[in-house]
Design a protein that fits this description.
With 235 residues, the protein is of the alpha/beta class. Helices cover 36% and strands 19% of the residues. It has nine helices and seven strands; from the N terminus they run H-H-H-H-E-H-E-H-E-H-E-H-E-H-E-E.
Length: 235
Amino acid sequence: MEGRKHSDLFLPSQEFARYLYHDAPPYDQALYSLVSDHACQFRADGLKLAMSPKVEFEEMSSPAFLLAFVNAIAKMIRAKTILEIGTFIGHSTMHFARMVGEKGHVTTLEVFRDFAEIARRNFSENGYADRITLIEGDASASLVKLPKRSFDLVFIDGNKQSYLDYARSAEELITDKGVIIVDDVFFHGDALNSAPSTEKGLGCKRLLAHYRNSTRFEHLLIPLRNGMLLLMKRQ
């Protein structure tokens, strides 16, 4: 430990965290398998899913370990209402419905009609149609029509260029105990650049800069997957 810095111990894939590993599978694969095994109840194989012919499932869906993390937050705050921005085919949406229970409700926003149609089919096929409201159309326009202070948890995983607008709208929508979770905020490292090379990376960088010194919200930036930002109202 002598001479080591916190930055050397930051990620579970760094040398200090794995120097005792010696089994046959590559360390990263063994680590992923272990984490995923502890989140098996959130895997896709527990649902009947119609897939998109345009986009691979794992390219846009939330992995089981990320959903397990969201579930932990939802249970801690006893969430009964969840708002999701970015439905895709509804896989995470249905897990959110499980998190809030039979008396809870999930509202989800999706701009693309083909994804929305597949998601509705999946909700119906899996018995969640009455516990989920899907609003089709531009999220920015939909957000201003939602009732204020009505969601215990907001999960943002939509248009990265609009992340800051989405989060600021979500500020007015969450309850006093509410939490906002913004996914993919590193955008493959582009948000860490002094000058991001993509509009999506720039959108994420704006979001992170805005909340760095927020006086209204406690915030936690987590290096989970592609980066995740947690926002909680200051009490």
